[in-house]
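Quick one: structure tokens for this chain, please?
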Amino acid sequence: MEAFNRFLDRVAEFFAHRKGLLVMVGMALVVLNFGFQFVPGWVGRSNLFLHLGVLTALLGILLAWAL
């Protein structure tokens, strides 16, 4: 449990100094999904990167607000 607490402390310290990083990663995933939409296959049909991007951006906004 102590190792997990140290890990969370390091992650919180990392994101405290880079508040917009997760939002930018989420936006990049949404743009990547736009490009994959024209590729045939399950990646283009599933909108996987769109959903991951939106969730990542929302998590980034919530973390930036909390930190």
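The chain has one domain: 2-66.
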